[in-house]
Input
Amino acid sequence: MDKSFFTQHISKQFNEELEDIVNRVMTMGGLVEQQLADAVTAMVEGDQELGEQVVTRDYQINAMEVELDEECTHILARRQPTASDLRLVMAVIKTITDLERIGDEAERIGRMALHLLEVDRVASPMAEMAQLGDHVRRMLHGALDAFTRMDPEAAVKVAQMDINADSQYEVILRRLTQRMKEDTEAIPRVMDIVWAARSLERIGDRARNICEYVVYFVKGKDVRHTSFEKMAEEATGDRR
Output
């Protein structure tokens, strides 16, 4: 972890508290990354055991979010941080919320994987699902890396990957829609794949959110609901 972005306080304990919460975010992020990778593998390869593991491990992510949220609340109450310290704590709170929701999406994919029959996998765009899964996993990894280094320019590059994720999702959705038109009896099972693809698309959105929090912390600018061009402009501006 790059410690250069931490404000140096008279209280060494405050510095350690801030570093600790960022380290714990990275630990939580690593677990979420693994959940995502395993969920996609379970879906694409029909690995029932792995799908069950994804479902049963979700509680760990939920517990980590609760613990981190409580620690952030205590820091706000005890330290009453201002300026960049306050932005850091707020960025952590927002990031762990998105990580928990990514964990929920991974758990949902794992559940969908348990419902599918082999014939559904053969007749569905599983290669494209694997490609989208790998793409959003790389987005998540890149977003967490940008968060660790608090690198706004890297964050912008990762956020822009969401354009490709949306395009891949649209391709999958068109193919699944066509299959449902051709085989109406398969609609209930194909909808499981549709929802899994939707979960992957949402994971890309949440990885982008984390990138926006990096820009918010470093530049003091809220770039939510703005264009990629505006986000890039703010990321390259002077720190406030």
